[in-house]
Design brief:
single chain; 500 residues; 33% helix
């Protein structure tokens, strides 16, 4: 009998969906990817078509399996990782969304957030680990219930379902209206502003504050267990056995399982996670507290997170909105065609500033422009902004942690840019380490699914799969680093107090 010794991960991100087949050594053996459209119907609004995302997930699963040449019997499980906080509300009877998905970057709900905060954005921080902000799911759900006629009544009657993208995909893949599993995992639930971090359950007081009926919510499960089986298609009968929010998945894929271990992912946004083990630690420096993972019935592991809204999406903005590059890959040669940014700084606060500032009033700003400035200087300032924002969240993490981070493990699409990683090491003053497999988000989802069905027996096996690809040591003099950071923080000040 053929052994089931491979796992497929669905990596459903903000701009695309990928499926990657991994072997027992954690090596990718086949992959497929499809982009989905970004919809910006009004300033500050960001929407996705949930049906398009589902179609892409199904297509990439089939394409990756076909490319691998493996029979279905070799696939032990499917893991899912997803853009977090993005909210979808759908009809349980038809499986159709009642409104476009409201994306995590969307800021339309600021008035709702302000009303619930009532002057105190930290009102529920002790319970949820999160500030009250448009970033998280609760206000998006409430907005949909208010905006769509009769939605609130139908949700209370159990006719509508809410979920982040993981819930949407699992429900449909396991049968949809014909008995699909309506579940989420603890990491995604911890990003909704509706779950108590200590109990890992939906909190009645939080539901009441947002006026969200519990009848529409998924069941909260661990990050590694069998939730159901694929109902149709070439992978019919394969269990879906792992779910992690994308940043937690990247951390897991980096084998950063224990307290003090960390990673920074450079994707659409940029996200630092520092593990705190089984201890639930609240930040005093502007980070959020989140669930890192939970394996089966074991105790949950927690983490501190520094969330940056705009990183790789800034490169897309240079391409799509300004037209100064034709492809995203063009940004590195353009940025490195000049020796420095020419004293230009780019604060990409398109959705306000996230950690550690939490300033929804901030907006994007390019400062320091002169007649000397060129598109190359703007491109370089855009790339360098990711490194500066990372310094801000790592500085916050070091203030919360008992000891400063000795090095930074990195992953995500932007880490193919060696110049960025060297500049990052220079600005941080610590080594930056890139692993051999940079698609650690998908790998983390594969690991949790594989652990649930016995492909891997424990965390030590996963640690043995991690290998270093490149290490970037800091070379910049301390005086120059301090000067650049001082200018960056002056640029941050210029971006504040813009939006009402």
């Amino acid at each position: 009998m053929t052994a089931a010794d491979h796992v497929i991960a669905i990596d459903q991100g903000t701009t695309s969906t990928r499926a990657i087949v991994f072997d027992r050594a954690g090596r990718p053996v086949a992959s497929a990817q499809r982009e989905h459209r970004q919809h910006f119907p009004h300033p500050g609004w960001v929407e996705h078509d949930a049906i398009e995302i589902l179609a892409n997930a199904r297509a990439t699963l089939e394409d990756a399996l076909a490319e691998s040449g493996l029979p279905r019997e070799r696939i032990a499980a499917i893991g899912i990782t997803n853009q977090r906080e993005t909210a979808i509300v759908w009809d349980r009877a038809t499986g159709e969304p009642i409104h476009p998905a409201i994306v995590w970057q969307d800021t339309r709900t600021q008035a709702l957030v302000g009303a619930v905060a009532d002057g105190d954005t930290g009102r529920f921080r002790e319970r949820t680990g999160l500030p009250l902000a448009t970033y998280f799911s609760a206000s998006k759900v409430r907005w949909i219930l208010d905006a769509v006629p009769h939605a609130a009544e139908r949700a209370g009657a159990g006719e509508l379902a809410f979920g982040t993208v993981d819930s949407w995909l699992v429900w449909h893949l396991t049968g949809g209206p014909a008995g699909g599993a309506h579940v989420t995992d603890v990491t995604n639930a911890s990003r909704t502003l509706l779950m108590d971090l200590a109990t890992l359950e939906w909190d009645p007081a939080l539901l009441a504050a947002w006026r969200i009926p519990e009848a529409m919510l998924p069941r909260i499960r661990s990050s590694s267990e069998v939730y159901g089986e694929v109902a149709e298609g070439p992978l019919r009968g394969v269990p879906i056995a792992g779910i992690l929010g994308d940043q937690q998945a990247a951390t897991f894929g980096q084998a950063a399982f224990e307290a003090g271990e960390s990673k920074n992912t450079y994707g659409t946004g940029c996200f630092l996670i520092v593990g705190t083990g089984e201890q639930l630690v609240h930040s005093s420096a502007g980070l959020v507290t989140t669930v890192a993972y939970r394996l089966g019935d074991a105790a949950p592991h927690y983490a501190l997170e520094g969330s940056i809204a705009v990183a790789g999406s800034l490169v897309q903005w240079l391409r799509d909105n300004l037209g100064i590059i034709e492809t995203s890959a063009d940004v590195e040669p353009l940025a490195t065609s000049v020796e420095d940014s020419g004293d230009v700084y780019f604060v990409p606060a398109f959705s306000g500033l996230f950690a550690p500032y939490w300033r929804p009033d901030a907006r994007g700003a390019i400062v320091g422009l002169t007649r000397y400035s060129t598109k190359a200087h703007i491109a370089r300032a855009a790339v360098e902004s990711t490194a500066f924002q990372t310094w801000d969240v790592i500085d916050a993490a070091n203030r919360d942690a008992p000891a400063p981070l000795p090095e930074l493990r990195v992953d995500g699409g932007m880490t193919v840019n060696d110049r960025l990683l060297q500049f990052q090491a220079d600005i941080l003053g610590i080594p930056v380490v890139r692993p051999r497999v940079i698609e650690t988000t998908a790998l983390g989802a594969a690991y949790t699914a594989g652990l649930a069905v016995g492909v891997w027996r424990g965390l030590d096996e996963l640690r043995a799969n991690w290998h270093e690809d490149a290490r970037f040591e800091p070379r910049m003099p301390r005086e120059e680093r301090d000067r650049l950071l001082e200018r960056w923080h002056r640029a941050i000040e210029k971006s504040l107090d813009w939006a009402d």
